[in-house]
């Protein structure tokens, strides 16, 4: 079985972080605020920072420290992972979203 390169899709947090960082570099607070806009709830630091640490350890994001603040950016591998994860989401859930849109009309 081929090992999949990419983010962990179990909780979707890793994917959402990568997707946000594919749009622009952000610090942890900025990421948390963007997630809050979409989910209606801000992730706790004890959830967000371990996910960032794992993404960093996997080489999907990198951090640039300026004093106490770290600004995160996506790497080339991270861009590949977000592309792969997006394709996976479309394959797995695309029909659900399409059906949901049709049935709500």
Fill in the keyword field for this structure.
alpha+beta; Arc Repressor Mutant, subunit A; 4 helices; 105 residues; 3-stranded antiparallel β-sheet; 3 strands; single chain
Task: Briefly characterize the structure.
The chain has helices spanning 13-23, 28-39, 45-57, 76-103; strands at 26-27, 61-66, 69-74.
Mean pLDDT: 88
Supply Rg.
15 Å
Give the number of helices. 4
Class inferred from helices and paired strands: alpha+beta
From the N-terminal CA to the C-terminal CA, the straight-line distance is 42 Å
Could you give a short account of the major beta sheet? 3 strands, antiparallel
**Helix share bin:** 55-70%
Q: How do the strands of the widest beta sheet line up side by side?
A: 1-3-2
CATH architecture: Orthogonal Bundle
Strand content: 5-15%
CATH superfamily assignment? Winged helix-like DNA-binding domain superfamily/Winged helix DNA-binding domain
């Amino acid at each position: 079985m081929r090992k999949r390169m990419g983010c962990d899709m179990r909780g979707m947090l890793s994917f959402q972080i990568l997707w946000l960082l594919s749009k622009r570099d952000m610090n942890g607070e900025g990421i948390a605020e963007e997630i809050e806009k979409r989910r209606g709830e801000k992730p706790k630091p004890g959830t967000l920072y371990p996910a960032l640490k794992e993404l960093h350890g996997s080489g999907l994001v990198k951090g640039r420290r300026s004093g106490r603040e770290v600004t995160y950016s996506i790497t080339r591998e991270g861009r590949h992972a977000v592309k792969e994860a997006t394709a996976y989401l479309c394959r797995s859930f695309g029909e659900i979203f399409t059906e949901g849109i049709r049935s709500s009309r």
